[in-house]
Fold:
Amino acid sequence: MTELSRLPGPVMDLWEWQYQGACRDIDDTLFFHPEGERGAARRRRAEAAKAICQSCPVMMECREQSLAVREPYGVWGGLSEDERSAILANSARSTTRKVG
Ligand code: SF4
Structure:
Protein backbone atom coordinates (compact mmCIF):
# COMPACT_ATOMS: atom_id res chain seq x y z
CA MET A 1 0.00 0.00 0.00
CA THR A 2 1.23 3.50 -0.79
CA GLU A 3 2.50 5.29 2.30
CA LEU A 4 0.77 8.65 2.07
CA SER A 5 2.64 9.99 5.09
CA ARG A 6 5.77 10.03 2.94
CA LEU A 7 4.22 12.32 0.34
CA PRO A 8 5.44 15.89 0.28
CA GLY A 9 2.94 18.54 1.27
CA PRO A 10 0.46 20.18 -1.10
CA VAL A 11 2.99 22.67 -2.42
CA MET A 12 2.38 23.27 -6.13
CA ASP A 13 6.10 23.39 -6.98
CA LEU A 14 6.53 19.87 -5.64
CA TRP A 15 3.81 18.45 -7.86
CA GLU A 16 3.95 20.52 -11.05
CA TRP A 17 6.35 18.12 -12.75
CA GLN A 18 3.48 15.66 -13.12
CA TYR A 19 1.93 17.85 -15.81
CA GLN A 20 4.96 17.15 -17.99
CA GLY A 21 4.78 13.35 -17.74
CA ALA A 22 5.04 11.56 -21.08
CA CYS A 23 2.31 9.17 -19.88
CA ARG A 24 -0.26 11.89 -19.28
CA ASP A 25 -2.38 11.04 -22.30
CA ILE A 26 -1.58 7.35 -22.44
CA ASP A 27 -3.90 4.62 -21.21
CA ASP A 28 -2.68 3.82 -17.69
CA THR A 29 -3.36 0.12 -18.17
CA LEU A 30 0.03 0.08 -19.90
CA PHE A 31 1.67 1.04 -16.60
CA PHE A 32 -0.29 -1.23 -14.24
CA HIS A 33 -0.59 -4.96 -14.71
CA PRO A 34 -4.07 -6.40 -14.91
CA GLU A 35 -5.18 -9.12 -12.53
CA GLY A 36 -3.47 -12.40 -13.28
CA GLU A 37 -1.00 -11.08 -15.87
CA ARG A 38 2.23 -13.07 -15.73
CA GLY A 39 5.33 -14.07 -17.67
CA ALA A 40 6.07 -12.76 -21.15
CA ALA A 41 2.88 -10.70 -21.42
CA ARG A 42 3.72 -8.89 -18.20
CA ARG A 43 7.34 -8.32 -19.26
CA ARG A 44 6.29 -6.95 -22.67
CA ARG A 45 3.76 -4.53 -21.16
CA ALA A 46 6.23 -3.29 -18.55
CA GLU A 47 8.98 -2.84 -21.14
CA ALA A 48 6.60 -0.80 -23.33
CA ALA A 49 5.76 1.40 -20.34
CA LYS A 50 9.41 1.78 -19.41
CA ALA A 51 10.23 2.83 -23.00
CA ILE A 52 7.79 5.72 -22.61
CA CYS A 53 9.43 6.65 -19.31
CA GLN A 54 12.82 6.78 -21.04
CA SER A 55 11.58 9.67 -23.19
CA CYS A 56 9.87 11.44 -20.30
CA PRO A 57 11.31 14.83 -19.30
CA VAL A 58 10.44 14.24 -15.63
CA MET A 59 11.61 10.65 -15.24
CA MET A 60 13.93 11.36 -12.33
CA GLU A 61 11.33 13.33 -10.39
CA CYS A 62 8.83 10.52 -10.94
CA ARG A 63 11.34 7.88 -9.91
CA GLU A 64 12.35 9.73 -6.75
CA GLN A 65 8.75 10.21 -5.69
CA SER A 66 7.79 6.60 -6.37
CA LEU A 67 10.69 5.43 -4.21
CA ALA A 68 9.95 7.98 -1.49
CA VAL A 69 6.31 6.93 -1.19
CA ARG A 70 7.07 3.26 -1.90
CA GLU A 71 4.59 2.95 -4.74
CA PRO A 72 3.61 -0.70 -4.57
CA TYR A 73 2.25 -1.13 -8.11
CA GLY A 74 3.02 -0.12 -11.64
CA VAL A 75 5.87 1.32 -13.66
CA TRP A 76 7.05 4.67 -12.32
CA GLY A 77 10.13 6.60 -13.36
CA GLY A 78 11.21 3.81 -15.66
CA LEU A 79 11.23 1.24 -12.87
CA SER A 80 9.01 -1.78 -12.38
CA GLU A 81 7.63 -2.85 -9.01
CA ASP A 82 10.39 -5.44 -8.65
CA GLU A 83 13.12 -2.95 -9.55
CA ARG A 84 11.85 -0.45 -6.97
CA SER A 85 11.63 -3.16 -4.34
CA ALA A 86 15.25 -4.15 -5.03
CA ILE A 87 16.45 -0.56 -4.75
CA LEU A 88 14.57 -0.06 -1.48
CA ALA A 89 15.87 -3.35 -0.08
CA ASN A 90 19.45 -2.41 -0.98
CA SER A 91 18.97 0.99 0.58
CA ALA A 92 17.63 -0.58 3.78
CA ARG A 93 20.58 -2.99 3.92
CA SER A 94 23.04 -0.12 3.46
CA THR A 95 21.38 1.83 6.25
CA THR A 96 21.43 -1.19 8.55
CA ARG A 97 25.16 -1.74 7.88
CA LYS A 98 25.94 1.90 8.67
CA VAL A 99 23.97 1.76 11.93
CA GLY A 100 25.13 -1.70 12.98
S1 SF4 B 1 8.58 8.67 -15.83
FE1 SF4 B 1 7.06 7.29 -16.74
S2 SF4 B 1 5.46 7.02 -15.20
FE2 SF4 B 1 6.68 8.80 -14.61
S3 SF4 B 1 5.60 10.58 -15.46
FE3 SF4 B 1 7.15 9.95 -16.94
S4 SF4 B 1 6.14 8.53 -18.35
FE4 SF4 B 1 4.84 8.73 -16.52
Q: What stands out?
A: Residues 21-23, 31, 52-53, 56, 58-59, 62, 76-78 surround iron/sulfur cluster (CB under 6 Å). The helical segments are 12-15, 39-54, 59-68, 81-99.
